[in-house]
Amino acid sequence: MDCTAVFDRVLVPWERVFLYGEQEYCAALFRNTNAFSHSMHQFLTKNWVKAEFVLGVATLMTQAIGIADQLHVQRLLGEILHAALTMRAFIRAAEADAGPGPGGVWAPDTETLLTARSFFPEVYPRLVEILQILGSSGLANIPSEASVSAPELAEDIARFYQGATIGGKERIRLFRLAWDIACSSFAGRQVLYERFFAGDFYRNVATHYVNVDKRPYTDLVEEFFAREPATLPT
Description:
Number of strands: 2
Order of helices and strands: HHHEEHHHHHHH
Strand content: under 5%
Shape: flat
CATH topology: Butyryl-CoA Dehydrogenase, subunit A, domain 3
CATH architecture: Up-down Bundle
Number of helices: 10
Strand order of the largest sheet: 1-2
Number of domains: 1
Largest sheet: 2 strands, antiparallel
CATH class: Mainly Alpha
CATH superfamily: Butyryl-CoA Dehydrogenase, subunit A, domain 3
Distance between the termini: 76 Å
Low-confidence stretches: none
């Protein structure tokens, strides 16, 4: 987990040291290699699977409480689906447009990954919000594990917490998982984590635009202006 570690007079064996006093090599790690592209591919794949997992939880939750056939619910579920499929499309496009980099090591397309890097921090808080909307008050009233395991409460759990398609214990387990994703302190940390894990996404979007070659796009407009006007029939 992310943390702060303080090392006070710690012995590091020299055989474990890779760079010492070589600032230029450290600075060139991301600039002269594809390490950054490979690291983006890794954590964006995680984001893709994360969006799919949220979709699975949301789908099961709406089925459990019998609202999956309602149009406004399907609209919200479709929003999660589109987020997952967009992440999938980013990853597959980056892989399809991969090419050799320094040293001949094949690397995914950086421009596509940079776009995906800025997309997910904006969409993930919305996915969590949709879980909260779909779960509604059901997320605020979840018995503890001790209550569910108590033999004297088994009949009440089965009767009062049953869903439209699953039993009481199964519904509690599902909603507890949704709570962990959308409402718990861990969930709040995850939203904060995804917002800023890849850096300030406002600055990332702006930096991407500043650094990208805009000529292919402006050339489209210039070529349009260069066309001869059509001659109207007299």
